[in-house]
Amino acid sequence: xxxxxxxxFNEKQEMWGFEPAQSAILTKxxxxxxxxxxxxxxxxxxxxxxxxxxxNGMDVTGIEISQTAIDMAxxxxxTAMTIYHGSVTEMPFDKEKYDGVFCYxxxxxxxxxxxxxxxxxxxxxxxxxxxMVFTVISxxxxxxxxxxxxxxxxxxxxxxxxxxxxxxxxxxxxxxxAGLYEVNEVTENYPFYLIxxxxx
Length: 200
What we know:
Elements: H1 2-12, H2 22-33, E1 38-42, H3 51-55, E2 59-64, H4 67-77, E3 82-85, E4 98-104, H5 112-124, E5 126-137, E6 148-151, E7 154-156, E8 162-164, H6 168-175, E9 180-187, E10 191-198
Parallel strand pairs: 1-2, 1-4, 2-3, 4-5
Antiparallel strand pairs: 5-10, 6-7, 7-8, 9-10
């Protein structure tokens, strides 16, 4: 996985541009409404989705597997944020508690046990009353069912990326015990679900 993302960021650099994803904009609104101050972003990339939280007065900490992406983030947005270099599968990287977690288009790249661990790790780093929001790819995506079948709803796609496709039942199964309270459909470059959880 590290090699894939290093290669991607080296070759394609700012491959998604600098505008935040629609999911990040919607999550920023939620976090502002709820008074969120400290945000953890597993899968930081080069920072395009993090910047909207920082611009709105939130303190952001990232986790990113690609050193190239971290270097790009620092080049574009400065060096004042903490970004841990490593895989989200190795969480936690600190003992901090956060009142917001935003995880964009990442969890569906993991296998079942890794997904369960990521949800658990994010939930454990949340303050009581904190919110975590995940954006995941939907079975409505045109790529669903393509590539090499690995396991139920999981396929090896282009370039060796393994992808798990969600529906509302699998969202309930994986996030139901993590404070799940709302699921919305959101269209990015693919049909996604925006999954919202609150720690009781």
